[in-house]
Amino acid sequence: MHNNLQEESALLQSFAAGDEQAFSVIYQRFYKGLMVFALRFVESTTAEDIIAETFIKLWQTKNEFQSLGQLHQWLRITLRNACLNHIRQDKNASERQQELLYLSDEAIDYQFSTAHLYANLHTRIIQEIEKMPKQQQTILKLFFVEEMSNADIAQQLNISVQAVKNQKVTALKVLRKTFKDEELWLFTGLVSTFMSHFSK
Predict the structure, then answer these.
(1) pLDDT tens digits for 143-178?
(2) 4, 35, 10, 34: which is closest to 22 by C-alpha?
(3) Whole-angstrom distance, CA of residue 19 vs CA of residue 150
(4) What is the number of alpha carbons within 13 Å of residue 50 lying toward its C-beta?
(5) Which of 60-64, 93-97, 122-126 is predicted with the least confidence, judged by mean pLDDT?
(6) What positions does the domain RNA polymerase sigma-70 region occupy (predicted)?
């Protein structure tokens, strides 16, 4: 359990100290997911530019993070706001983009008020995963942290896709029992993210 937490802590400490290799590790870990997220708002060339600017801002605030979950949430919020600002300034924004802008403005206060809760819960989920049997740990970490699909996980571990799905369902049932009632509304949101990938 402690090894990965120690690795995460060491990575964050190196990053905070200005280690460019640590920055590269963080960039590689989160870039793909951020690109998928940004493409909900803007086209690919703009998304690449905004992501680059977001990582520059991350480097400038590298001393402020206590966990990778917190850092990841900061990246998503910063990226999202930059995408929305781009849409606001784009006179040729599509109707779909304008709708996204409206819906996002409606939800912005809610998102900021819950962001730190998601980050903390993310860290706790990782801690609970590390108490599980080794194969369940590996499957959930590949899915949850590395954002790999069921098929990719199955190929890497040399097991069936169905076995991957079964292991995830079992593990998520354990996690659901672990968290307090007042945390279930947040946990359910994260579980929904997991479940949306089960058919991949």
Answers:
(1) 766 667 889 899 999 999 999 999 988 887 887 777
(2) 10
(3) 33
(4) 26
(5) 93-97
(6) 26-91
Dist CA 55 CA 32 (whole Å): 13
Q: Exposed, middle or buried by CB within 10 Å (0-12, 13-18, 19+), for 198?
A: middle
* Amino acid (1-letter code) at residue 23: F
For residues 112 and 81, is the Cβ–Cβ distance under 8 A?
Answer: no
Alpha-carbon distance of 12 to 126, in angstroms, equals 16
For the domain bounded by 1-99, which CATH number is listed? 1.10.1740.10
The CATH code for residues 110-199 is: 1.10.10.10
Spell out the domain ranges in the chain: 1-99, 110-199
